[in-house]
Amino acid sequence: MPLSAKTRRKRSSRIVVTLLSALLPIVLGGVILYLQAQRTLEQGSRLTAEEAVLQFDLMLDNTAQAAEKLLPLAGQPCADVNLALREQVTRRPFVRATNLLWDDTIYCSSLFGETHEKIAPGDYSHGQLLLMKGNRVTPDTALLVYRLSKGKQGAMSIMDGYHLSNILRLIGRKTIVLLQVGPQWLDADGQIHEGPLPVLPVAHTTLDSQRYAFHVTAGLREGEIWRYISSEYPPLFSLLIFFGAMSGLIGHILQKRSTSPSVEMQRALEAREFVPYFQPVVSGDGKQWSGAEVLMRWNHPKEGLVRPDLFIPFAEHSGLIVPMTRSLMQQTAELLAPIASAFEQPLRISVNITARHCKDLQLINDCRQFLSHFTQGSVCLVLELTERELIEPTDITHRLFEQLHELGVKIAIDDFGTGHSSLGYLRQFNVDFLKIDQSFVAMIGADVLSRHILDSIIELSVKLNLDIVAEGVETEEQSDYLTARGVGFLQGYLFARPMPGAQFINALTGR
Ligand code: C2E
Ligand code: CA
Ligand code: CA
Question: pTM, whole model, 2 decimals?
Fold first, then answer.
């Protein structure tokens, strides 16, 4: 069955679409959360760097003030200024030692008193700052030296690296913060390194001090964004999963709706996939083609040709049978109209209709439309109404059948003998033909009771002056039996199977 087969085959693609619609909000939301986390970390990193620069500037202010105070004393004998050097160490926060220089040579130190040590001004960043691994007293403790010079005079104040690394550690917390002075840089462990800085791929920021010759670099290691997301966003993630599940559910429901039989059939109708097949009806006496029954086939793009009993019930249920039949009549008219003028007798074209068609007068327009393709008398349109589905006699149906007759349209009761139509019913709707159901025809020569029913139907139709078409004639015996009893028309595989339009036209025109 095409509709259920289609559903089965589409199941895998439905699962894929459902999964995609569930994943889409999760992935999109994940990307947004990722970008948001990245932004937050970048802002945090920048703020950290700004804070570090501010702190270092404040600390260096103390060393700068000490050096400024001492500079005018440079050149005086060490014994005279030694006390002043020590005073600065005591008074100024962060200052661990002070030196006086003459002509780039330290000649007096708060630590050692008189000394003689040549310095290289080029080692100092902008001639001002130098990060050192240690000095003679504490060779393993980092130091930051602030140098001030004027002519031959020079003063230095030295800060303990411990204060600096403390700031790096306290301010940074999860962010890595580094203090860079010239080619040297200090990390939060108080170690001084030389050369390129470590790679900080996340939220990398470098900020220069506006007042002193150093800069601060802050950033995070690889994977920090995900670590941040997993620690900060679990509630948002739960929300995303919820949205994903909802979206998947909605996607699933929408797909189910969009692949419902009626939607699929609506698509097929627009694509003109419902096509007419023609089964010739022959006259009982000469076995000449006197007309044909139009039988619907679904020319499905994937399933191939589909039998009507597999989709007509869906079409009836959804009401699509009405536009489908209209399309079938339209196609039939387009096929036959070009050759209709060659017909010697009016060709009888039977179309199957259902009770639904009789609910309004639209059918009249459809028949009028059909007949307008042909010259008067070249075709005779017959509407087949199955006996199993009786039409309720109402004002509308009476008007409908009256007007149909005025148009010259004939009415046939299909599958006659399987339902329970009364004589009154036959008269009420002005029936022209009875189509004996193929189950009775199949019993010819086999079942005595069925043959009796068949004989009664034939007798009845003669009395009522109705033409009879016998359906499902498959053997010569059946054909002979029916012809012998005066059945006017025969239809069945013995004469021809239902065939596509082109084949029917070729046979009609003798090509
Ligand atoms: P139906 O109106 O009774 O149509 C006759 C069915 O008998 C057709 O089956 C035809 O192919 C089949 N048939 C003809 N000769 C023989 C024969 O010698 N032996 C056997 N075993 N079968 C024979 P089909 O085309 O499969 O149509 C089945 C049913 O679907 C139709 O029964 C009709 O009720 C419905 N149908 C077909 N086309 C339409 C349509 O356009 N509109 C509506 N409402 N129903 C349609
Ligand atoms: Ca029929
Ligand atoms: Ca039938």
Answer: 0.60
